[in-house]
Amino acid sequence: MEQLEQRSLLAADLMYDALSVAGNALPGGTVLVNSTINNVGDEAAAAPFNVQFYLSQDFTLDTNTDIALGAPFTYNFGSIPATNGSAGFPFTVTIPSNTTVGNWFIIAVADSDNAYAEANESDNTLAAPFFVGNTAPVIGDATVSPSPVGTLGSFTLRATGVADSDNLGSPVTVRFYFDDGDSVFSQSGDQLIGSGTLGAAGEYTFTGAVPAGLPIGDGQIIIVASDNLDNTPIFRNITIVQSAVPTLSDLTGPDSPVRRGRATSLVITTVSGSTGERPVVRFYRDSNGTGAFEADQDQLLGTGVTGTGGEQILALTIDPAWGAGTQRFFAQSTDSLGQSSTVTTDTIGLLANSRPQIRNGLVSNVAVSSRGSTITFTARNVTDDDGPARVEFYRETGNNRSLNTSLDALIGVGVRRGVNWVLTLTTPNSFRLGLGRFYASAVDVVGSRSVAKAVVVNITANTRPIISTFSLNKNSVGEGGSLQFFAGRVTDNGSVARVDFYYDSDGDGRFNIRRDQLLTTGRRLGASNNFRRQINLPSQVTDGSNRRFFAVAVDNLGLRSLTLVDTATVTQS
């Protein structure tokens, strides 16, 4: 008889792959459990099947002592594929209210009612640790400022790095207390100062007056973070002293109204009365217009600087955004003990700004300017309330026959010449040929701009410079000897930048700027159009008859003249 081949029946085989508990739990509270179950069998594990969760004091399941956490969870999210298919799911369980605080385990059992006949039933169980109970909030650090502080002063109490790792209780609050002297926090015995306001992440701040009745001398501030389940206190030292507050003289500003954008100053003549050190005077603007001083809302302008007579001075520029009309300003002094003076005030009238004017138009010194030549623009009789800050000159590139500072090209800022503003420049190659429109616009210190004035100039092409004559002062010279170069009547439609003198070092009789040797650059003779330079010939100029030398003029746009040549015999030394 033929022997039958042995075959295994196809089956699903579940294995608990991962289990975790998301944080702490309180007795009677809930906690989220995250599970991952794999199917290592050779057939898909069809839903549904059950998962039972237990509470255990260790990681080994004992159904006689471990506590089942409610009815089994029924997995019903579709089948898990064969051969290492995987399924993950969360499930919330309730912790019994009589559970003691401490370390516990949650044990999960896949296919808890054995719906599948699996090859390996031992890998259906997995345990995960967690903590039953609350974790108290933490405080990274705390500060008290200033210390010492006066009995009539203010202080700032700050806790930083405040965090609650499990967030099981209420949102964290921070309160500040004055210790009753036993260095132990007691909500009933210690004096509450105030609650902190949450600012940056984990930072709580209280700023306020020192409460009346706190004892003079050394003491402790208690900073307490609470989640309404647990309190975390830390202690910081403080010294409270009996002292007097500073006093200020009247605040004074300018007698006459001030234009916006102009400089002025606020002055406190005397600061006195404080037993604290280093009184600081701060100046404010009534930015919300209430007429009353509100330090947290009014604009802080700055801190006073001590003048030669001991007065406190704040120099400031009137911001155009403040608008015209009357502005109220405040001053208050605070000493090193956190004590502040009574506020003193003054009002300043602000005048509206008028735009500058170019009263007599814009002119140029030439009606026609070739590229490379010098042109001067003059904005005539420019006026303003206190004088313009600048005059800007533009070339029209927007083709709309009116100044548009976003489209037209700024060509420069003028220089003041009495009541006029002048811009002198070399006409560049970028200026388009033909009739060009140019503008001047005056701008004052607050950015107000005048009506633009225009002038038209005809821009023509650049032409190369011309050297009328070129000569050497000798027909014969020894090697290394002295030789003078002279270029006469050098002209250009613009201006001549320089005249260069070269040696025909490649000996081909023609000028080549890349191969021939530059010997020197001529010097203009006074105001004339002549250029001259005398040098000792370098060693590269060797003996021979009819050695050629070249003269080339270059204008201020880099255009070169035609080359002139002269010769000399160089003899051996």
Task: Explain how this protein is built.
Helix content is 0%, strand content 49%. The protein has 5 domains: 14-132, Immunoglobulin-like, CATH 2.60.40; 141-241, Macroglobulin (MG2) domain (Immunoglobulin-like), CATH 2.60.40; 247-351, Sandwich (Immunoglobulin-like), CATH 2.60.40; 357-460, Immunoglobulin-like (Sandwich); 466-571, Sandwich (Immunoglobulin-like). It is mostly beta strands and 573 residues long.
Please identify the top-level CATH class of the largest domain: Mainly Beta
Coarse shape: flat
The value of Rg in angstroms is 46 Å
According to CATH, what is the topology of the largest domain? Immunoglobulin-like
Strand content: over 45%
List the domain count as a whole number.
5
Q: Report low-confidence residues grouped into runs of 5 or more.
A: 4-9
CATH superfamily of the largest domain: Immunoglobulins
Subunit arrangement of the protein: single chain
| Secondary structure tally, helices | 0
Which architecture name of the largest domain does CATH use? Sandwich
Distance between the ends: 127 Å
How many strands?
A: 48
Question: Would you tell me the overall average pLDDT?
Answer: 91
Largest β sheet strand count, sense and barrel closure: 5 strands, antiparallel
Structural class, from secondary structure content? mainly beta
Give the helix level as a range of percent.
Answer: under 10%
